[in-house]
Amino acid sequence: MQIRPTLESKFIMLASVLILLGSIVVNHWVISTYRNQLISEAEIRALLLAQSTAISFTNILLYEELDLVTEGGLLDNYIRDLVADTLSRVQEMTVYDLDNRVIATNDYQRYFQRNSPEQTDTELAVGNDHLIRHIEHNSFEILIPLHISTRPFGTLVMQFSLQAERSKLSAFKNRMFLLTIGIAITGILIAFLVARTLAKPIKHLATEMRKVQEPRYTPKLDSKRRDEIGDLERGFVDMLGRLKSAADEKERQQQALIQAEKLASVGTLASGLAHEINNPLAGIRNCLRRIMARPQDLEQTQKYAQLMDSAWLRIEKVVRGLLDFAKKKELVLQRTDLNQIVKAACVLVDYRVKNQKIMLKLQLAQDLPAIDGDPQHLEQVFVNLLLNALDATPERGTIIVKTKFQHDKVIAELSDTGKGIPTDIQRKIFDPFFTTKPVSKGTGLGLSVTKAIVEEHQGSIDVLSSPDGTTFRLCFPRPATVSNYSRKASEATITDLGD
Ligand code: ADP
After folding, report:
1. CA distance readout (Å), 310 to 283, 287, 352, 360, 487
2. Does residue 29 form part of some domain?
3. From the CA of 324, how far away is ligand 1's center (Å)?
4. Cα dihedral angle (95, 99, 103, 107), rounded to 10 degrees?
5. Which residue's C-alpha comes closest to atom 14 of ligand 1?
6. Count of structural domains, the chain
7. Is 452 in the pocket of ligand 1 (CB under 6 A)?
8. Is 397 touching ligand 1 by the criterion CB < 6 Å?
9. Ligand 1 proximity of 268 Cβ (cutoff 6 Å)
10. pLDDT digits over 267-277, tens only?
11. Is 427 in the pocket of ligand 1 (CB under 6 A)?
12. Residue 434 Cα: closest atom of ligand 1
């Protein structure tokens, strides 16, 4: 399943990442500031102790030199007491003489050892008031030269423990970690709530926008909001209104175009149908004359009355067909049998078929599913295509109308053995007013209207043409639930249709 990256989820993701990153950075900054503060406080405390100790040690060294002190081991006692005092945090103490020899220390093994060979602590301390050296993670050393004015005595090195600070820091870190997690979770929750609140009207607007395609849609929007979303909603409703009037206008124009094209076809058909009416009329007149010549012959009168009746029915059928075709009608979709539509259209062009001695073959599929269609509009489609095919096909040519059900689509194909459509004009033939026929014959509206009607039915129209003929292929979707199947229709020729 593919998760759609919604505005809401994007906002939450971004806010969460920023909150987490922000929390980590702040956490790191606070901890390192606290660590530096702890260490610098420890250093200041240690320095004060080291400086006061250095003064006392210098005095003792001076008194020893002047033999004012007889008692030995004063420095060692002092050092022992200081190291033993846990509050002092002193771990180790060493006093070096000017030759870098240890003269007092808490670690007796180091007595009289020389100091490090490269650079001695004494050398390091010279010229400095003091020197602080972090020797390892948990401790640091302070080096202080012992002197009175310019007279040096040696160097005092004191190592202090940072254990207490480390413990404080790790407790602080734990508290900060919990605090950061708490802040991050609260932040993400707030971001989630804000995202929901902000996205709600946008989501609602998006849902409404998606519904625009639905028939009889009316927007359910609270345009009273005074923020940007309110502006957006009002803009949308406004745009919808304009779109609707544009669509209504387009629909009106399209209907006018369909009607204009229909009337043009009626004109073409009427000249042909006049013969269809004239012939039976002449027959009726002939019958009447014979009846009038021998009115007493009842048998003959009966026979001619029957002939007149069937001639009359023929006229009525043709005239009704033409009137129905010419009638202006809004598109009304209903379950429609395409085979019946094809047959009705063929009746209207019957005269021209006969006149041009065309072989009109119908290959209509049995059990063709009904489609959702407007019979009148669809009839116009087939009349347009048939008239074009008749215009293009020479005498004794063939026109085949085929219907079939394939890949869940109801398909109708109309092929002729006419002159075909040159490749360079094939993409123009559906443009309104494009025609290759003389002004009196073509309007250039037939195929554009045909395409519009087919698309009104959610269908499609394609053309395949070569110099040997042309095939128009119409594809219509089958309604979602098919309850109505067309009557069985079998292959027939035009001569069967009128009956
Ligand atoms: P009209 O028939 O008034 O010219 P249409 O839109 O029906 O307008 O057709 C446009 C053009 O397409 C026609 O002028 C013709 O050149 C071409 N055409 C349409 N159908 C066929 C066909 N079956 N065979 C050859 N050409 C065709």
Report:
1. 10, 12, 22, 25, 26
2. yes
3. 24
4. 70
5. 435
6. 2
7. no
8. no
9. no
10. 777 776 777 78
11. no
12. 10
**Cβ partners under 8 Å of residue 381, min gap 6:** 450, 453, 454, 474
Ligand 1, atom 13, residue with closest C-alpha? 435
CA 184 distance to own-chain centroid: 30
Q: Which of 148, 169, 190 is the last residue of a domain?
A: 169
d(CA 416, CA 468): 8
pLDDT, tens digit, 9 for 90 and up, residues 133-192: 888 778 999 999 998 888 889 889 999 999 999 999 999 999 999 999 999 999 999 999
Assigned domain for 445 exists = yes
Q: Is residue 243 part of a domain?
A: no
Q: For ligand 1, is residue 318 a contact (CB within 6 Å)?
A: no
261 lines ligand 1 (CB under 6 A): no
Domain ends where: 134, 169, 204?
Answer: 169
- Rounded to an integer, what distance in angstroms lies between the CA atom of residue 473 and that of residue 444? 19
Nearest to 498 by CA among 305, 362, 337, 391: 362
φ/ψ region of 159 (left if φ > 0, alpha if ψ in -120 to 50, else beta) reads beta
> What single-letter amino acid sits at 58?
T
Specify the residue with its C-alpha closest to ligand 1, atom 20: 388
Ligand 1 close to Cβ of residue 388 (< 6 A): yes
- pLDDT, tens digit, 9 for 90 and up, residues 177-217: 999 999 999 999 999 998 888 888 888 888 887 877 776 77
Backbone φ, ψ for residue 211 (5° rounding): -80, -5
| Torsion angles phi and psi, residue 290, rounded to 5 | -65, -40
CA 447 to centroid of ligand 1, rounded, Å:
7
Instruction: Output the domain CATH number for residue 382.
Output: 3.30.565.10
Closest residue CA from atom 19 of ligand 1 = 388
437 lines ligand 1 (CB under 6 A): yes
Per residue in 241-260, pLDDT (tens digit) is 888 888 888 888 887 887 77
Instruction: State which residues form the domain around 486.
Output: 330-499
CB-side exposure of 53: number of CA atoms within 13 Å?
A: 31
Q: Parallel, antiparallel, or unpaired for β 409-416 and 469-477? A: antiparallel
In a domain, residue 299? The reply is: no
For 426-462, the three-class secondary structure string (H helix, E strand, C coil) is HCCCCCCCCCCCCCCCCCCCHHHHHHHHHHHCCCEEE
- Total-model pTM: 0.52
487 CA → ligand 1 middle, Å = 32
Task: Identify the CATH number of the domain in which residue 137 sits.
Answer: 3.30.450.20
